Amino acid sequence: MTDVSRWVQENPLRYRFLQDFQKLGASVLYNAAVGIVLKRRRLVYAAGTVSDPALFSDTFAALVCEPSVRDALLVDGTFRECFNCYQAVYTNGPIPQERTDIQLRQLTLDDMPFVLQNYHHPGANPEHISARICEYMIGAFVDGNCAGFAGVHEEGAIGLLEVVPEYRRRGIAEALESQVINWCLQNDRLPYCHVLTDNTASLALQQKLGFTLDPKPLYWLS
């Protein structure tokens, strides 16, 4: 049994992302009956109730599954911010792309200025966006103009989804995320994402696309 398989077998919907994180090269920092902690570069994923601050040192952000761990790491000052999220997991087959009015193409570094200008996230910076484009980001183009983009985060979750305001409510977010789902499936990756618990529009999109939502929140700490 691998380090993460016990957790995946216990609750595949909640913990299968650990398996994909390990496949991307995450190493196991801690593994015991009470929990498991994996780290890749400066990102940490933790399941169970382990909250030793030493395991989260030199970390940019961490995803934890239990509110007790969240509270302990915030109280002791290891992290300052918390974002409550629902995890959505896609377990169906590829999604046909039937839109003929949208051109979907993989972005290149030439598109980075546009992404930086339009991606409204506090963690966006040239180094981060460059790495995401080099792995995989897709753009949606309408009449030659970029209307939005999406991709995969460093830890493997689907995200980076942004639609330019004048192109919203035209199904572009659905087309973009469908394409990223298909890329994940083609590359033996689990299509999953983390959605803020109060982002009703994104939660509705995940359900429309066929994702299954874990009813218990997860917690991103930074």
Please characterize this protein's 3D structure.
With 222 residues, the chain is an alpha+beta fold. The chain has two domains: 5-89; 103-189, 3-Layer(aba) Sandwich (Aminopeptidase), CATH 3.40.630.30. It has seven helices and twelve strands. The strands form two sheets. Strands 1, 2, 3, 4, 5, 10, 11 and 12 form an eight-stranded mixed sheet that branches. The chain has a four-stranded antiparallel sheet with strand order 6-7-8-9, sandwiched between helices. It is globular. 35% of the residues are buried. Residues 102-222 form the N-acetyltransferase domain. GO terms for molecular function: acyltransferase activity, transferring groups other than amino-acyl groups. InterPro entries: Acyl_CoA_acyltransferase, GNAT_dom.
